[in-house]
Design a protein that fits this description.
Layout lengths: L25 H12 L7 H4 L9 H10 L1
């Protein structure tokens, strides 16, 4: 049985990046991890693409990432 993580306990971990193939459950896992650890959740697609799935300029995207 896994030990439940107490979100109020300070942690050295402040960011986790999850990679995987489309449809592999990244978003589902990320949401569960967020709920268990209280680490902020950011979906990079929301920052990389503009309306109608148009890719954002790479430099603009990288500047956005630095703010997260």
């Amino acid at each position: 049985m896994r030990k439940k993580i107490d979100p109020s306990t300070p942690s050295k971990i402040s960011r986790i990046m999850i990679f995987g193939r489309p449809g592999s459950g990244k978003s589902t896992y990320a949401l569960a991890l967020h709920k268990e650890t209280n680490i902020p959740l950011h979906h990079l697609d929301k920052h990389f693409f503009t309306k109608n799935w148009v890719e954002r300029n790479t430099q603009e995207f990288l500047r956005t990432l630095c703010k997260i």
